[in-house]
Amino acid sequence: MKRIHHANGVITLTFERLEGLPVAAHVSTRHGGVSPAPWRSLNFSILRGDEPERVHENRRRLADALGISAASVVSCQQVHGTGIAKVGPDDAGARIGGCDGLITDAVDLPLCLVFADCVPLLIYDPVHHALGAVHAGWRGTLNGAATALLWAMQAAYDTQPSQVQACIGPSIGPQSYEVGAEVVALAEARLPDAAAVLSHPNGARSGAHLDLWLANLQLLMQAGVAPEQVEIAGIDTAQNTGDFFSHRAEAGRCGLFAMVTWL
Question: Beta strand pairing status for 84-86 and 119-125?
Answer without folding.
Answer: unpaired
